[in-house]
Amino acid sequence: MSWFELEDGLSDAVDVEFAEPFIFHPMKKASVNDPSVADDGRSDRSVMAIFSNQSLELPEMGLKGSGAPGYSSRARGTMGTPQVSVDVRQFAINQLPIRLDRFIRQKTNAQYSVTDVQPDGQGRLKCLLVEFGIGT
């Protein structure tokens, strides 16, 4: 078994266990100031992707009763970057995700725009996302 076959088999096993269905919707801009529109040169497709939206809890640093700096549990915030991990074999060579493309998570109908695409060196792409709404 070649390294590539082993890598593909591992990616398939990971998708079976963790992936969920998304709709991939390619987008483009005619120029910098134009709104994004559907990219007719690339087609929509159903893909299986691993969604992650790990949040980092940021406790507010506040004052304790004595006025000394310390930990206050009254106010908290979270931040995180939603992302999907997707096997490149689900796309034709000229159809790979790029910045501004969209993923629609079928589980929740949430719509995400791609902000960055990073190859992981193992046959998958990590697409960083920003949520911009819930579809109908």
Descriptive overview:
With 136 residues, this protein is mostly beta strands. The protein has a single domain (3-55, 81-134), classed as Thrombin, subunit H (Beta Barrel), CATH 2.40.10. Helix content is 12%, strand content 49%. The protein has one helix spanning 3-18, and strands at residues 20-25, 27-28, 37-38, 45-52, 56-63, 69-79, 83-87, 102-105, 110-119, 124-134. A 6-stranded antiparallel beta barrel has the order 1-4-7-10-9-8. A two-stranded antiparallel ribbon has the order 2-3. A two-stranded antiparallel sheet has the order 5-6. Strand 2 and strand 3 (37-38) form a beta hairpin. The model is unreliable at 62-68 (pLDDT under 50).
Compose a concise summary of this entry:
The chain is mainly beta and 136 residues long.
